[in-house]
Design a protein that fits this description.
By secondary structure, this protein is mainly beta. The protein has a domain at 15-61. Helices cover 7% and strands 31% of the residues. The protein has one helix and five strands, in the order βββββα. Strands 1, 2, 3, 4 and 5 form a five-stranded antiparallel sheet that branches. The protein is elongated.
């Protein structure tokens, strides 16, 4: 959905982007990788308005930050 702008489940074209963010007390859509919210990696969410299917995506520039996280496993 991120690149095609089409839902893979219902083929709907009405896609919402909910941008990832990090707020106080662990709120937001993010992956914590450090001790503060400033180190959290935001996770963007794409939602189909026709069927409700959703996908979550980490921004390309944040993948290295996740790779270096002590929680990452390969």
């Amino acid at each position: 959905m991120k690149t095609t702008k089409v839902c893979p489940k219902c083929r709907g074209i009405h896609i919402l982007l909910i941008e990832g963010w990090a707020g106080g007390y662990g709120s937001g859509n993010n992956i914590p990788v450090g001790a503060t919210i400033f180190s959290a990696v935001p996770v963007d969410r794409y939602v189909c308005k026709d069927c409700g299917y959703s996908e979550e995506w980490v921004r390309r520039e944040d993948i290295e930050k996740l790779t270096k996280s002590k929680h990452a496993r390969t």
